[in-house]
C-alpha cells in the first residue's frame, strides 16, 4: 500500500503584476533622496548649465543602454533573481552568487538609507522626531515590511500609490518654480567659479548614475508579471523616460529659479525655491521628500527578497527562504532581508556598505552584460522575445561603459576592491555545499 503525503502543496509567487506596477516600481526605485541632494553637489563642481543638463541626459542614455541589455535577458530568462539568474545561466553558480549577493546588499543598504532619510525629513513637520531618528526609521521599516509581508497585492498598492504621488508632486514643483517664481539669477556660467576638471565631471556623473539606479527593478518580478515579453521591456523604458524627463525638468527649474550659483550654495535647493511660496514651504518639501524616500524603500523591500527566493529555489540557500504565504509574499526571504535592513538602519553602517559597494556594483554590471554575449554564443536557440537593439554594437557600448566605470572606481576605491574580492571568496562555500537539486521551474 502506498503512503499518501498530507503535506500542504507548496505555494508559488503570484503572477498578477502588469505594466502599471512595472513602471511604478522602476520610478519608485530610481527617484529617491538622490534627486533632492544631487543638484547642489553637481552645481558646485560643474560650472555650466548646459553641461549639467547634458550630464543628466547622458546618464539617461547610459541607463537606456542597460535597459536594452536587460530587456533581452529578462524576457529570455523571466526569473525572480534578476542578474543572478542571467549570470547563473551563462556562467554557473560562482559568478552568479557574486552578482546575487552584491545586488541583494545594494537593496538592503538602499532600504536602510531611505529609512534614515525619511527620519531626517520628518522633523521639518514634527520637531519631536529630531531626537528620535533611529526610532522613526525603524518604525517606517516596520510599517513597510508589515504591509509587504501581508502579500503582493498590498505591496503593489503601496508602490503604485507612492510612485504616483511623488511623480505628481515633482511635476507640480517644476511648474511652480517656472511659473510662480521670477527668475532671480542668470543661467549663464558664473565667471568666478572654477573650470570643470575631469575628476569633477566623473564625480558628477557618478552621482547621476546613482540617481538613475533602479531602472532594472521590474526584472526582479519576472515570475509575477503576467506577460513578461511585453511588460518587462515596456516597464523599464517607460519608467526610465518618465524619470529622465523629471530629472531634467527638476534641474532646469532649480537653475531657472535660483541660478547656477544659487543651486551650488544651497544644500537643499528645493527648500530655497519653496521659500518663495510662503511658510508652508517646509511642510511641502518634507511631505514630498518623505513620500519620495518611502516609495524608494518600498521598491527595495519588494525587490531584494526575490533574489534570496531564487537562490533558495536553486538549492543554494535553505528551503525556508523559498517559502511563500497565501498573499504571495516570499516571507522567509523577506524576514532575513528585514533583519539586515533593521540592523543597518540602527547602526548607521549602510553608509559604509554604500561606499564598499561602488566597485562591486561595477563588477556585477560587467558580469551581467558579458552574460548577454556569452548566452548568444552558448544558447543561440534560446527563445528571446526581445532581442537587444543594435546587437552587438549597443551592448558593446554599454560593456565599455561598465569597464570604464569599474576602472575609475578601482583607482579611487582600493578598499572597495578588497570588499569585492572578500565577497567573492565568501561565495565559494555556497558553491561547494549546495545542499539539494533545484526545484523544477514552471
Residue stretches low in confidence (pLDDT < 50, at least 5 long) are 1-7, 188-193
Number of domains: 1
Beginning-to-end CA distance, first to last residue:
31 Å
Please identify which CATH superfamily we are dealing with. Amino acid/polyamine transporter I
Structural commentary:
It contains 15 helices and no strands. The protein has 442 residues and is mainly alpha-helical. It has a single domain, classed as Amino acid/polyamine transporter I (Up-down Bundle), CATH 1.20.1740. The longest helix has 37 residues, at 228-264. It starts with 18 loop residues before the first helix and ends in a 10-residue tail after the last helix.
Question: What's the gist of this structure?
Answer:
The chain has helices spanning 19-30, 34-43, 49-76, 83-91, 93-121, 133-150, 152-179, 198-212, 228-264, 269-274, 281-313, 331-347, 350-378, 393-412, 414-432. With 442 residues, the chain is an all-alpha fold.
Descriptive keywords:
single chain, 442 residues, mainly alpha, Amino acid/polyamine transporter I, 15 helices, 70% helix, disordered N terminus
Question: Which helices and strands appear, and what pairs or packs with what?
Answer:
Blueprint: H1 19-30, H2 34-43, H3 49-76, H4 83-91, H5 93-121, H6 133-150, H7 152-179, H8 198-212, H9 228-264, H10 269-274, H11 281-313, H12 331-347, H13 350-378, H14 393-412, H15 414-432
Helix pairs in contact: 1-7, 1-9, 1-11, 2-8, 2-9, 3-8, 3-9, 3-14, 4-5, 4-13, 5-6, 5-11, 5-12, 5-13, 5-15, 6-7, 6-11, 6-12, 7-9, 7-11, 11-12, 13-14, 13-15
Amino acid at each position: 500500500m502506498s503512503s499518501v503525503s498530507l503535506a500542504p502543496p507548496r505555494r508559488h509567487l503570484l503572477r498578477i503584476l502588469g505594466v502599471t506596477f512595472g513602471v511604478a516600481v522602476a520610478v519608485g526605485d530610481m527617484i529617491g533622496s538622490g534627486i533632492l541632494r544631487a543638484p547642489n553637489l553637481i552645481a558646485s563642481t560643474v560650472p555650466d548649465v548646459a553641461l549639467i543638463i547634458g550630464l543628466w541626459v547622458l546618464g539617461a542614455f547610459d541607463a537606456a543602454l542597460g535597459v536594452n541589455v536587460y530587456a533581452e535577458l529578462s524576457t529570455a530568462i523571466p526569473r525572480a533573481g534578476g542578474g543572478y539568474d542571467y549570470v547563473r545561466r551563462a556562467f554557473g553558480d560562482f559568478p552568479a552568487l557574486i552578482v546575487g549577493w552584491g545586488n541583494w546588499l545594494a537593496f538592503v543598504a538602499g532600504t536602510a538609507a531611505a529609512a534614515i532619510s525619511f527620519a531626517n525629513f520628518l522633523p521639518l513637520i514634527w520637531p519631536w522626531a529630531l531626537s528620535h531618528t533611529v526610532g522613526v526609521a525603524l518604525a517606517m521599516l516596520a510599517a513597510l515590511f508589515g504591509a509587504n509581508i501581508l502579500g503582493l497585492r498590498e505591496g503593489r498598492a503601496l508602490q503604485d500609490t507612492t510612485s504616483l504621488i511623488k511623480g505628481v508632486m515633482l511635476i507640480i514643483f517644476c511648474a511652480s518654480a517656472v511659473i510662480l517664481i521670477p527668475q532671480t539669477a542668470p543661467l549663464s556660467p558664473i565667471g568666478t567659479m572654477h573650470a570643470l576638471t575631469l575628476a569633477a565631471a566623473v564625480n558628477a556623473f557618478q552621482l547621476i548614475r546613482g540617481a538613475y539606479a533602479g531602472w532594472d527593478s521590474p526584472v526582479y518580478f519576472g515570475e509575477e508579471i503576467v506577460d513578461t515579453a511585453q511588460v518587462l521591456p515596456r516597464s523599464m523604458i517607460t519608467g526610465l523616460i518618465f524619470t529622465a524627463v523629471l530629472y531634467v525638468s527638476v534641474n532646469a527649474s532649480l537653475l531657472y529659479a535660483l541660478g547656477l550659483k544659487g543651486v551650488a550654495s544651497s544644500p537643499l535647493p528645493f527648500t530655497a525655491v519653496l521659500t518663495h511660496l510662503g511658510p508652508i514651504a517646509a511642510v511641502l518639501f518634507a511631505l514630498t521628500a518623505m513620500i519620495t524616500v518611502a516609495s524608494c524603500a518600498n521598491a527595495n523591500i519588494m525587490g531584494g527578497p526575490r533574489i534570496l527566493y531564487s537562490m533558495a529555489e536553486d538549492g543554494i540557500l535553505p528551503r525556508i527562504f523559498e517559502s511563500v504565504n497565501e498573499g504571495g509574499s516570499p516571507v522567509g526571504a523577506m524576514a532575513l532581508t528585514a533583519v539586515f535592513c533593521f540592523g543597518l538602519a540602527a547602526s548607521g553602517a549602510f553608509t559604509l556598505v554604500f561606499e564598499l559597494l561602488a566597485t562591486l556594483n561595477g563588477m556585477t554590471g560587467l558580469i551581467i552584460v558579458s552574460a548577454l554575449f556569452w548566452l548568444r554564443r552558448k544558447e543561440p536557440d534560446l527563445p528571446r522575445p526581445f532581442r537587444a537593439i543594435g546587437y552587438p554594437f549597443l551592448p558593446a557600448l554599454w560593456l565599455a561603459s561598465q569597464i570604464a566605470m569599474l576602472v575609475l572606481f578601482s583607482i579611487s576605491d582600493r578598499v572597495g576592491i578588497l570588499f569585492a574580492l572578500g565577497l567573492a571568496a565568501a561565495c565559494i562555500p555556497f558553491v561547494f555545499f549546495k545542499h539539494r537539486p533545484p526545484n523544477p521551474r514552471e
